[in-house]
Design brief:
single chain; 100 residues; alpha+beta; four-stranded mixed sheet; 2 helices
């Protein structure tokens, strides 16, 4: 699986790259048909204290799957986004037909 990480309007972070790669690889072991993951971290000014956005797109057979979340920290945003993606992947797996 190919993993691309981009930081938008913020400096790069090796810690966040390692954290995201670990989470996506765990998802990739569970769903081995994921081809590519594009991860975007965005920093926006938000008066409510949020503004740390994690946006992930997964390429796989069929249409792409996309999830995004806005939270107080990038780790929390990444966890929430991964949870949303896992729900979508489970639904997609249930819709897939096995051809024997």
């Amino acid at each position: 699986m190919e993993i691309n990480i981009q930081f938008v309007k913020m400096p790069t972070s090796e810690h966040m790259e390692a954290f995201a790669i670990k989470k996506i690889e765990r998802l990739g072991r569970k769903f081995d048909w994921i081809l590519k993951a594009d991860i975007f971290y965005k920093l926006e000014k938000d008066p409510k204290g949020k503004g740390k956005i994690c946006d992930i797109q997964l390429s796989l057979p069929g249409p792409r799957i996309h999830a995004s979340s806005n939270n107080e920290g990038f780790e929390l945003a990444t966890d929430k986004t991964i949870d949303d993606l896992e729900k979508q992947l489970k639904k997609r797996k249930g819709e897939m037909k096995s051809y024997l």
